Amino acid sequence: MEENQNVSKNGWKRIVRKKWFFPAVYLTFAAVLLTGVLWYQNLDNQLPEASDEPNSGVDDDQIFGDPNEFEQDADPVVSQQEVVKMPVAEENQAEIVTKFYDHSADSADQEKALVLFDNKYYQSTGVDIASSDGESFEITASLSGTVTEVKEDPLLGHVIKIDHENDLQTYYASVQDVLVEAGAEVKQGDAIASAGRNLFGQASGVHVHFELRKDGVAINPEDYFNQSVAEVSVPTTEENTSETTEEENTSETPDENANPDASTEEEDASSENEVDDEEGTDEEEEDSDEGAEEDSVEPNTESSAAMANA
């Protein structure tokens, strides 16, 4: 066994000592390395072809969807989040000097909602907002929208009208230094003018007359300040109608319930009146008879006296 091991070792030594051994090993290693590189490159080139086959006939939009599909409703969602704001830049320094005339309000609020002009009182269809120091202040858009009208009225001063979503309109009067024009798009909080004076509301001093309208009907702005535009609605007339009906029924009900007794009382009263009339007639007749007797007595007395003198 030892002799065989020695022979194999000697054989390897002889091979290693050959001049061609190391070049042969080098060439073999280089061939294996080159083969691996070529195989890797061919593998990269074949992967796209293999990936295209199962996806043939399938569009990217079908896999991932249309990227613009969810962008269409983005603007309406943002606009629905707006709330009705007071049309002033600094609400802390503003105060309402004239209220909206509400028929269901108490007498004190209704008195504050009357506007005196030309010796007549008019019901206010909006609110007059003034600064606590009486100075002019910046007027801002209460909501985002489109300016539909800008005009100058001899009684109301400069007037600005803006249309908004949900059939809402805002109305700004008694303003000056107007910064917008008809057709302009404004965002909530944008400056549109400054407060001024007008003839109709001269008692309010420097102010802005602000109105909020739904479907063209003026509503109380104070009820919807800081409320979502989706909550703005026109008050229904059913309540007023029901109240009027109840008042009419209340005024009619006592007469209907009291008809039997009332008719009896009226009959008794009429009979008493008839008796009184008869008694009054008899008394008048007696008085007339007594008067006639007295008249007849007096002439007789006078005639007897004349006769005695004779």
From TrEMBL:
One of its GO terms (molecular function) is metalloendopeptidase activity. Residues 228-310 are annotated as: Disordered. Residues 299-310 have a biased composition (Polar residues). Residues 124-221 form the M23ase beta-sheet core domain. Pfam families: Peptidase_M23. InterPro entries: Cell_wall_metabolism_enzyme (IPR050570), Dup_hybrid_motif (IPR011055), M23ase_b-sheet_dom (IPR016047). The chain crosses the membrane at residues 20-40. The keyword Transmembrane applies. Residues 240-255, 263-297 have a biased composition (Acidic residues). The keyword Membrane applies. Keywords: Membrane, Transmembrane, Transmembrane helix. PANTHER family: PEPTIDASE-RELATED, STAGE II SPORULATION PROTEIN Q. This is M23 family metallopeptidase.
